Structures are given as structure tokens and as C-alpha cells.
């Protein structure tokens, strides 16, 4: 089993940003965890090719939650590779499939009403972008604690807070935690809460950090920041202390 980080760097509103989807490969499967913004399929294909991989071999896509930078390219990816099986948590599936409105869109629309007039045009542009995200059908629904028997065992770890249906993935055979947006790596190299002002439930996010800290993590990989350089358990416990201190 091999784990391939495929960082994709891009410009967004004049700011250089990077996201880090992950490819997991064993003898029979190639699994992509999250797929970036709309239009990112060529970037994913190029990033895979640079690592000697081809999305022609892709068997599964695991979507950790339905934010636009995690599922934006999902529909185009499914069209290009129709045999790929899409996997998501049971709470997120209705939003990914488009049967329920995006929670991020609901949040943005609610916030828009409280903004000063000069900030509303930018917010309206963001709302329009969220409305343009194309849904995609989910082929397999997973629940907390389920272990997918691939790549040495992929444990589904429900880590709500950022969104209710957010999941992390623990690669059991290697002690690797794919944390998605449960935590991020800040510019100073420390762990932080992903977009704390947009986190749906801050208390749930803290509980998810505590849960992650109980795992034996050899490597911690964040969607924003990539591979954490340090003791993952210690870093998570420090973040938890800071987070609980701020909420008191």
C-alpha cells in the first residue's frame, strides 16, 4: 500500500493557495480522497501523472464533506471515469447528491443579511459560486467506525464540527490519519481549526480534535497544509487546550 499526497497550488482572488488531495494505492485499487474545486480534474490528472499514476486506474473517490473545494470537481470526474465508486458519510450524502441544499450555502445566505452594504457584492458572488456547484450521486454511504477493507484498512472516523457529516480516514496498517478539514496546518507549522468563523459547530470540532488525539498517528495529513511535521498527538492536544481555553 502506498500513500501519495498530490498538492495542487492555484491562485484564488490574487492569493496563492494549495490544497492536498490524497491518492491511496494497493494492488487492486486506486482511491482518491477529495477532488478540489470545479474545473480541477485536469490538475488532478496532471498531479497523479507526475507521481507515475493514472486516474484511468481510479476505483473509488471518498468525499470527506461537501465543501466546494472537496467535491467541486466530483461530477466532472464521474463523467470522465464513470466506473468510479463515490463514497461519503450518511449525513453528507444528501448534500453531495443535491437533494438537500448545501449547508455552506445556507450559512452564506444567512450571513449575507447581516453584512454591511459594501461587503454584500462579494458575498453575493460567493453565494452564486456555491449555487453553481454541480451535485453528484453517491454510490456508497459509510458510517462512523466502518472499515473499508482496502489499502490496509480504511477506518471511517466521523469528525463533525467543520460540517456535521465531515469524516477523517485512518489508514490502520500505516497509522496515517487523513484529517481533511478537521484540522489545518497554520503558517507557523502548528495545527489550527479550519476556517473557525465558518465552522458549523465549534464544540463538536473540539470534540473531534480530542477524538483524533486518541489515535496512534504516525503521520497526520491535512487538506490544507499537507503532512504535519511534528508529533501529531502532542500537536492535537495543544490545539485542544487552546481551543477549550478560548471557549471558556
UniProtKB/TrEMBL annotation:
TM spans (from-to): none
Residue ranges constituting the Metallo-beta-lactamase domain according to the UniProt record: 18-224
Name of the protein in its database record: MBL fold metallo-hydrolase
Xref: InterPro entries: Metallo-B-lactamas, NDM-1-like, RibonucZ/Hydroxyglut_hydro
Domain of life where this protein originates: Bacteria
Protein purpose: Counteracts the endogenous Pycsar antiviral defense system. Phosphodiesterase that enables metal-dependent hydrolysis of host cyclic nucleotide Pycsar defense signals such as cCMP and cUMP.
Reactions catalysed, as given in the entry: 3',5'-cyclic CMP + H2O = CMP + H(+); 3',5'-cyclic UMP + H2O = UMP + H(+)
The organism of origin for this protein: Paenibacillus soyae
